[in-house]
């Protein structure tokens, strides 16, 4: 059994009861953020009554709520004074980490989508579209706040992946990289920082593109990265040495993933190469809870899926790419280097 599930104690119905009630934590964290408790408690211990007055809530209910926050470890109580714990600090507004935004994302988008999991299991289609009436990425474009939250959370996780890629892959001789669906630029930005002679383009839909420009400026690499707005289902800009496709294909069904790959194949010069970065489903044996949860999240959110290396290689072959090298970049995550074939 996965370590995630071992956190739930007991047997039979006791364990099921704990699993069933885990949504209460999402709601409690959401309310703590909504009331700005992590900011208000930052470095200043306060009594319950004074806190209740500041955040303007019913004192008795609030007292009980504070016990809940102590239980999940966001705050601690000592001599009737409440303080923020290290865990709680990650939810402060001034924290650059994505956890606070991610908490809001889970509540606003995750919960309503997962409530219709049955729809996805019966139809194989994303319940997100069933609930929100449009595709996940169209919704993000229209709801800029949620879109930013999602892009920001992707950005922060990919900045870490960039270090692993830089450590494992030799970029010598590469002049320009086209990052297709590059999000806010977390990955390409870090690669540009660690490889000062490389230039890049970042190809994205409108919202992520405008955020990417700002982000790339903020880390001082905007002069080496042109941000282009476009739709990778229509076409992909042509003629670059390296095409980077990171955590894009997992958002899509095989048919849609093939369309993206074929557009890259049409754009890539014969000397070019494609670097495909994705988390992997193992061919056999236990899957990590991370991959299983992400795979189900893809099902309900976008209609995509996590894949095995063989499945990625098959897609690459079908799009006339030859996968040459598979480079482990983190546990459970690889980069496949592939070359265009068949010209
Ligand atoms: C899961 S994110 C991956 C972002 C980044 N590559 C990374 O590894 O963090 C997928 C990206 O694809 C972009 N995207 C979705 N549909 C697109 C389209 N039709 N054309 C261009 N980009 C698109 C989204 O805006 C999003 O930033």
Low-confidence stretches: none
Helices, by number, come to: 17
Secondary structure tally: strands: 10
> What coarse outline follows from CA principal-axis ratios?
globular
The name CATH uses for the topology of the largest domain is: Rossmann fold
Alpha-carbon distance between the two ends: 48 Å
**Overall tally of structural domains:** 2
**Major sheet characteristics:** 7 strands, mixed
**What's the rounded overall pLDDT mean?**
91
Named at the architecture level, the CATH assignment of the largest domain is 3-Layer(aba) Sandwich
Strand content is 15-25%
Side-by-side strand order of the widest sheet: 6-5-4-7-8-10-9
Order of helices and strands: HHHHEHHEEHHHHHHEHEHEEHEHHEE
CATH class of the largest domain: Alpha Beta
Structural class category: alpha/beta
Q: Can you say what the CATH homologous superfamily of the largest domain is?
A: Vaccinia Virus protein VP39
């Amino acid at each position: 059994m996965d370590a995630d599930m071992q956190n739930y104690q007991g047997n039979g119905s006791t364990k099921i009861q704990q699993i069933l009630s885990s949504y209460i934590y999402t709601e409690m964290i959401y309310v703590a953020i909504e009331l700005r408790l992590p900011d208000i408690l930052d470095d200043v211990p306060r009594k319950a009554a004074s806190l209740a007055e500041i955040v303007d809530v019913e004192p008795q209910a609030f007292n009980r709520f504070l016990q809940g926050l102590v239980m999940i470890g966001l705050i601690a109580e000592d001599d009737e004074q409440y303080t923020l714990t290290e865990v709680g600090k990650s939810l402060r507004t001034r924290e650059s980490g994505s956890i606070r935004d991610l908490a809001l994302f889970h509540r606003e988008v995750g919960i309503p989508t997962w409530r219709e999991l049955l729809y996805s299991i019966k139809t194989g289609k994303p319940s997100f579209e069933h609930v929100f009436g449009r595709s996940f990425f169209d919704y993000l474009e229209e709801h800029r706040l949620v879109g930013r939250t999602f892009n920001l959370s992707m950005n922060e996780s990919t900045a870490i992946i960039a270090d692993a890629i830089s450590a494992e892959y030799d970029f010598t001789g590469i002049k320009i990289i086209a990052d297709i669906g590059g999000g806010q630029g977390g990955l390409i930005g870090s690669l540009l920082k660690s490889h000062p002679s490389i230039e890049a383009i970042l190809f994205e839909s409108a919202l992520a593109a405008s955020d990417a420009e700002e982000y790339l400026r903020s880390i001082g690499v905007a002069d080496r990265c042109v941000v282009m707005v476009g739709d990778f289902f229509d076409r992909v800009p042509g003629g670059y040495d390296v095409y980077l496709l990171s955590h894009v294909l997992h958002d899509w069904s095989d048919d849609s993933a093939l369309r993206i790959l074929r557009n890259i194949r049409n754009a890539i010069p014969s000397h070019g190469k494609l670097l495909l970065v994705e988390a992997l489903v193992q061919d056999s044996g236990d899957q990590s809870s991370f991959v299983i949860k992400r795979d189900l999240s893809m099902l309900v959110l976008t209609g995509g899926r996590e894949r095995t290396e063989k499945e990625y290689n098959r897609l690459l072959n079908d799009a006339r790419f030859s996968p040459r090298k598979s480079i482990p970049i983190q546990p459970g995550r690889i980069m496949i280097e592939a070359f265009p074939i068949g010209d």
